[in-house]
Amino acid sequence: LDTKLLINDAMDEGVVIKKGNKYMTVDGLPLHEAGQNSTFENAVSYLNDTKNQDTRAFIEAKIFNQPKKRK
Predict the structure, then answer these.
(1) H or E stretch including 24?
(2) d(C-alpha 36, C-alpha 57), whole Å
(3) Which of 4, 24, 47, 71 is most buried by its number of CB atoms within 10 A?
(4) How far apart are CA 34 and CA 52, in angstroms?
(5) What angle do CA 43, 44, 47 make, to 5 degrees?
(6) What pTM value is reported for the model?
(7) For each successive 10 residues of the chain (71 residues), what is the average pLDDT?
(8) Burial class (CB in 10 A: 0-12, 13-18, 19+), 30
(9) Closest by CA position to 44, among listed 4, 5, 12, 11
(10) Pick from 42, 34, 61: which is nearest to 4 by CA?
(11) How many CA atoms lie within 13 A of 10 on its CB side?
């Protein structure tokens, strides 16, 4: 999945939340490297980084393994 689409889908499903300007998982894991501003683009970069693929897999699993919300 395209990472931008993944984040948007995760936000729609409540797996990723935005508190103020900070993007994080619903469990409170920030989606940016330490010392970076929490922006959408930094969240995309964070999830594209090979060392953060466990976080990406966690988000994908949460999206695809839960019932879809009705809109």
Answers:
(1) strand 22-25
(2) 22
(3) 47
(4) 13
(5) 85
(6) 0.86
(7) 93 94 93 93 97 96 77 51
(8) middle
(9) 4
(10) 42
(11) 29
